[in-house]
Every structure is written in structure tokens, then in C-alpha cells.
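User: Please run a holo structure prediction.
Assistant: Happy to. Please share the sequence and the ligand.
User: Here you go; the ligand is uracil.
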Amino acid sequence: YDATPYLPARGGLPAHRRAAAGCRGCPLYRDATGTVFGEGGKDARVMLVGEQPGDQEDREGVPFVGPAGRLLSRALRDAGIDEDGLYVTNAVKHFKFTRDETRKRRIHKAPSLRETLACRPWLMAELRLVSPELVIVLGATAGRSLLGPSFRVGTDRGVPRPMPGTEDGPRVLATVHPSAVLRATDRKSAYEGLVADLRTAAGILS
Ligand code: URA
């Protein structure tokens, strides 16, 4: 599995977005509606990286437009981060799912490490083209892609660090995935933890 052969040899975000629409670098393109590429300008100071598009993102072709995205918007607002001026993307650009018994609902399935690494060249291209000052990693899948397979949200969250393998690269700050907040038994404290990490991010920017 590898997206590399599908990347354009040159061009900016628009050329990459067009090429990503035809990516067959792993099998996830087969069942998804389409590729969900990142959204935002090349001048964004902050890049947010989620896991993969959800059901609604898959149908609309835009990242973080469903329930997790609404929670994320609220958390960004509470942390004082302006959403205009962000670049928002995912570690994996196709929706992976199984169907329930009635075959009506599509149920999110976490991408494998192999699928995540296959999609990584798209994320690396977005990082190179946007060149943000700060990357906010949302959850384990994005963390494993950007910080290595031993990444653990529980131990690695909330502490800014340099991007591995770069010298003047962006700072990286990991936090929980907004979907994990939606699933948490103690939703209020999970939400407060997310906002606290995003406030740390806001502090790096100001
Ligand atoms: N969850 C993600 O990680 N990304 C999205 O775009 C939506 C939900």
C-alpha cells in the first residue's frame, strides 16, 4: 500500500487535491464515496490533523463537517483559536467503515497502520505546501502517522515538541480526538482536557 505513485510531480494544493481524488494507493478508495482532501489556505499558520473522514465528511467531501467537527469548532472557540486561517485535514483520506446488520448504517472502522502509512505521502505534501508553524495532532492515528508508531495519546498529549526529522519544521502538539470526547463516559472532563490542550496551542501562536 502506498500513495506515492499518485502524487503529482509538481504543483500546489489544487494540483494535489485533484490528484488525490484518483488515489488508489490502498484499498479504501473502493468503498468510500471519494477522497476527502484537506481544507484551508496554503498560508495557514496552524494545521489540524484528524484520523479519517467520517460518514458525513465522506458524503460531502469536506473534513470535520459532522458531529466531531462541530465539537472541534466549539473547543477551538473556547480555546481562543480562530477557525479561519486553519488548515484542516486527516491522516487518512478515505472513509473506512463496516455496515451494521441492516446494512443501512455505515460504522466507522479505524484505519490500520498500513493504510495510515500508505496515505502519509499526502499528509507530508500538505505539510510541505502549507508549512504551518504548528501542527495539532488529533488522536492516535494522526499521532502514529506524524510522531511514530509508538505514539500514545495518554502520555504524549499536551506537550509541544519539534516535528521528528525536521530542523526548522513546525511545532507539534497532540491532543485527544474530538470523537473520543463524544464517546467518553465523563464527557465534560474529556472536553475540558481537549480545550486545555488547545489553549496550550493558542499560547504557542501568540
Ligand atoms: N473525524 C476525523 O478524524 N476527521 C474528520 O474529518 C471527521 C471526523
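DSSP finds eight helices and seven strands in the chain.
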